[in-house]
Amino acid sequence: MLEAVGAATVEELFDIPPAIEFDGAFGIDARSERETRRLVRSMLDRNDTLTELLGRGHYGYYIPSLVDHLADRSEFLTSYTQYQPEVSQGFLQVLFEYQSLLVELTGLEIANCSMYDAATALGEAATLAERVRETSGHRVLVPDRLLEGRRSTLENYVAGTDLVVEEYPLDDGVVDLEALEGMVDEDVVMLYAENPTVRGTIEEGLESIGDLATAHDALYVLGSDPIALSLLQRPADVGADVVVGDASVLGLPTSYGMGLGLFATREDFLRQVPGRLVGVSEDATDRRAYTLTLQTREQHIRRERATSNICTNQAWVALRTAIHAASLGPHGMVDLAKRGVTRAEDLAEHLDEMTGVAAPVHDRRHFREFVAHVDQPAAPIAEDLERRGFAVHVVGEHEIQVCVAGVSDAKLERFVAAFKEVVQ
Amino acid sequence: MTNNAETPEDGSVRYDQARYVENGQYEPLLAEKDQTRVEIGDDDDSPLPDDLTRDSLELPELSEPELARHYTRLSQMIYGIDSGPYPLGSCTMKYNPKFTEDVAALPSAAVHPDRSERSTQGSLELMYRLQDYLGRIGGMDAVTLQPPAGAAGEFVGIRVAAAYHEHNGEGHRDEVIIPDSAHGTNFATAALGGYDVVSLPSDEDGRVDLEALEAALSENTAALMLTNPNTLGLFERDITEIAEMVHDVGGLLYYDGANLNALLGRARPGDMGFDVMHYNVHKTFATPHGGGGPGAGPVGVVSELAPFLPSPRVRESEDGASEPSYELFEPDHTIGKVHGFQGNWLVLVKTFAYIARLGDAGLADASAKAVLNANYLASQIGYDVPYEPFHHEFVASAGEQDAADVAKRMLDYGVHPPTTKWPEIVPEALMTEPTEVESKATLDRLAAAFNAVADEADGALEAAPNRTTARRIDQTSAARNPRLSWHALEDE
Ligand SMILES: Cc1ncc(COP(=O)(O)O)c(C=O)c1O
């Protein structure tokens, strides 16, 4: 090969000025495959094995075996963006079906085929609001208990615009409509609410929030996820303009926060949507075929005038989400969501029976998680629970948050027993 | 099937992609196999009052074997690296070692991000060691693993630059300079960060034009974004001088790590004078591209910029225990977060495993073979390659042919085509990056495909592809009449 290229050594092919050449000594040892696996395993074994009653934006639902086995087929794993649709029909169809799933769940006409996660999807929604705004306003209103990761990511996404993020208060776990009404004016370009909320409550004022947004020409952005959307109010029915959230509640196990940004919106904003869209066309034999479409919105064509800078996205996670949803089917999805309500409320009841515990803190309906008040300081309780093999959130000096997603009934029973011992 | 679709007798393999046709259409949609509507609230077992629920949900209800066949068939209608060579320029489509999937699937990797530091020492150690590896490889002092892709890494770079200038009372800097041959994400990211983009023309050798750079630089320059080797595969030989020029006006130099595969073990962005860079782990470190993602885009910076990195980062804690322990910390002047949690964790695990497997020698060997393979392939094809000396990728010109048609025709030869029509400075560009993983035999097969197509008439090219699942797809009608869900098809 060297002969063919007319070089005596490979080094001759490098055109690097000597002054900046590097000798290659990173100090990283090579290992066999087996040793590498052992190294990673022994390192990760330092993670304790705990039963996680954790949620707050990241969930560990049971993933059917079908998902791993199909998604790990190497054609799915080792292909890339479908720049050549004729040879990528399979993945394009998967993404088209994923978009369709989100359209069904949200009732909005358009869903893109992924953002990175819920936080960046929220950021993208704000830049969308900036592009489509009908007023000269610049305020983005978000709930005061918004997850720090979402809030901070949103701040970064709007840093290059004239938008400012402000908080509105919640009242006993749901939106304080009166306070919100007092805050909304023509200057508001986006109003963001979540259902369920970060503390697991089911929002009751979705329609009124939508009316407020509409009355002031603000974009109504709703945060949710595919499991909650299977049961809770359909965003289109409460006037949502955009739905964001983490779609990987279906498809991914707990992955240290890795997610899949859900982004759906109304048809009116078609040309302003961020991210990739798969559409339908025909091939030369007049058969239906799929292709990436409306690419003139995207960075590789529109450059600094693109609707987003996203290129590599979360397509393979969308595949996993689509397979998981398909394997549940509509009955399975609705049932899973219903169990999120009943199991959380059952657990709250059990905790509430204990002396020194009041659960749930909010007198509302809950989805999948809730906050419990503990008379004793919460942090030591959580530490004690951790020693007994359970992880919970500490969300206040005397507040613990627990989530039932993915936790078996047997483990919940053991958790209740452990909790009782700890608070007694 | 037309005759001219037959693969010539030149040693190339004949390729036929899977194609299922039912009722005159390809594989039906899930929704065409079944649609089941579940009513909610019309029975007693709804745990919620009707005003808190939706009315119904309509989706396919299929058996597990039906789904297994559906997705298996769809997978057969996809060309991946495991199907054959995939020399998609700038994307570094190298083989993804299987064992990295196994380490990422370890049950001990499946932890929640809100777990206590004490109970997640394994994850923290892996992140700490990966930060360290990447710092060494890039010649950078501090690394964040949070950005979930290259473009997100660029965004961190731009936000860090903004915070740094602001901190120094230089918030007036409002321009980011980007070569005209750069990737689209560079422009889009600078704009997202609120910067005016100053486009920099290339000189006739295809590199940064120093005079044009001089003219573009000013006290308003926040940063210059560069990739090196550039998108033509050329090393920016004047990089030290470029860095000096940028630094002289008080700007920062950003390295787009998409092309780091050319330099592993031979040159480091930090030594070239770059202040901030992203690593494209789904390119350089072989994590799978997954049909479009997920990837990860960690960012490295020089020590001066470390206080501005996203939060949290991982460090060793000084608790005096015999076994080192790790903790999260918030950099002093952090820009905050660019992801809800810690980024694409599972991808980071694979990245760590790949680097730990290769080590110094393996990494340097990767760049050696990547550059040799690109040079060999270019020497075997008839298309003109106007800019040299290139490294891990080259940009050939399809000349009188339409590069997009060339790509379609190459599909018939069972290979994935190069990136086409970019960078624009080469007419009808065929941006080709074979990567280090291809054998000479595969490169010869790839060259045969290029050369066969080069000799074909426009008619054959325009009729292509023939052997793929779908034939040529009409892009215009997809955009003119957008149908983006199966719901939209029902209305037809
Ligand atoms: C030169 C270059 N820069 C930046 C990017 C953006 O990286 P990502 O797709 O991971 O966001 C890419 C690849 O897509 C690229 O080729």
Automatic annotation (TrEMBL), chain A:
Coiled coil: none
Entry EC no(s): 1.4.4.2
Alphabetized UniProt keyword annotations: Oxidoreductase
Gene Ontology molecular function: glycine dehydrogenase (decarboxylating) activity
Alphabetized Pfam families for the sequence: GDC-P
EC class name: oxidoreductase
Protein name: Glycine dehydrogenase subunit 1
The species this protein was found in: Natronorubrum sulfidifaciens JCM 14089
Highest classification ranks of the organism: Archaea, Methanobacteriati, Methanobacteriota, Stenosarchaea group, Halobacteria
From TrEMBL, chain B:
Name used for this protein in its record: glycine dehydrogenase (aminomethyl-transferring)
Single GO term (MF): pyridoxal phosphate binding
Keyword terms: Oxidoreductase, Pyridoxal phosphate
Domain Glycine dehydrogenase C-terminal intervals: 366-460
A GO cellular-component term linked to this record: cytosol
GO BP terms in the entry: glycine decarboxylation via glycine cleavage system
InterPro entries linked to this entry: Aminotrans_V_dom, GDC-P_C, GDC_P, PyrdxlP-dep_Trfase, PyrdxlP-dep_Trfase_major, PyrdxlP-dep_Trfase_small
Listed EC numbers: 1.4.4.2
Reaction(s) this enzyme catalyzes, per UniProt: N(6)-[(R)-lipoyl]-L-lysyl-[glycine-cleavage complex H protein] + glycine + H(+) = N(6)-[(R)-S(8)-aminomethyldihydrolipoyl]-L-lysyl-[glycine-cleavage complex H protein] + CO2
Location of the Aminotransferase class V domain: 162-290
Organism: Natronorubrum sulfidifaciens JCM 14089
Broadest EC class assigned to this enzyme: oxidoreductase
Pfam families membership: Aminotran_5, GcvP2_C
Residue span of region Disordered: 24-55, 461-480
Biased segments, Basic and acidic residues type: 30-40
